[in-house]
Amino acid sequence: MKVVKQSGHYVDFDREKLRKSMLRSGAEATLVDNVVQKISESIYDGISTRKIYKLAFSLLKKESSSHAARYNLKAALQMLGPAGFFFEKFIARLFERQGYQAEVNCLLQGTCVTHEIDVVVQKNEITAMIECKFHATPLAVTDVKVPMYILSRFNDIKPLQHKVFGHSHSITACILVTNNRFTTDALTFGTCSGLTLLSWDYPLHENIRHLIDREGLYPITCLTTLTVVEKEKVLIQGVILVSDLPNQSHVLETIGLSPQRIKNVLQEIRELTKT
Asked: Which residue of 92, 95, 196, 232 is 20 to 30 Å from 176, comparing CA positions?
């Protein structure tokens, strides 16, 4: 059975790959096996991987909104756009959860010019600049030109002291983050140049997907009980994380949700964030 990837390439249908992707959502093996069986029985030669994903998401959602939300995580990150400002705030919160102080949209004077830095973080002796390369479409990748450009900015900034977090600090590290993936050349150049790279699936065990699951730091865009328009309204209200909503549930009233809809959203949040 051949399926069509989003790139247009034909590949064999990988039943086990589909199974593993759903197991990562936290769904029990029995449920996942049932879903995989239903999908296997309904797909046809030439079906797109996107249609398979939508079918898997729909079947998971019927059983558990929280499992569907986790399964939808990569797409949820792509909804933190269109310009990526909300993605930058999300990355700041992700580093804060790991014990860093974080500030977004900082102006730092370099030796030659002034730079607007997406995020600056500090922990112990490390003060790092973070540049976020956001992609709103799944096929977009971060190529080698991006780490080359970021390295030049880092080199202009690091010789000077900068007033951040109430004190003067040198920028000692540079982190490049993308919500999709890096090309092979981008990874090679970035690591060779001493940059720290973070993407959806890189590095192997400390990538964005793993950090989100480990820290329980889910963006509100992964919720299945809100529409796309409602998610945008919640983001505009300043709520980025699922875990923030229970203490700011008035936001859901502000955007026009009924009491029953609010109850459904909060129930999904409880299921998604329980340990």
From this structure: 232
Contact yes or no for 41/15 (Cβ under 8 A) = no
State the pairing for strand pair 114-123/101-109. antiparallel
Q: Is 165 exposed, middle or buried (0-12, 13-18, 19+ CB in 10 A)?
A: middle
CA–CA separation, 150 and 130 (whole Å): 9
Q: Are 159 and 201 in contact (CB under 8 A)?
A: no
Whether residue 25 contacts residue 12, with contact meaning beta carbons closer than 8 Å, is answered with no
Burial 5-40 (b: 16+ CB within 10 A, else e): eeeeeeeebeeeebbeebbebbbeeebbeebbeebe
Cis peptide before 82 (omega within 30 of 0): yes
pLDDT digits (tens, 9 = 90+) for 115-155: 999 999 999 989 999 999 999 988 899 999 999 999 999 99
Count of H-run helices and E-run strands, the chain: 12, 10
Give the 3-state secondary structure of residue 253: helix
Given a contact cutoff of 8 angstroms between Cβ atoms, the answer to whether 179 and 199 are in contact is yes
Q: How many CB atoms lie within 10 A of CB 258?
A: 10
Residue 174: strand pairing partners: 129
Instruction: Look up the pTM and report it.
Output: 0.87
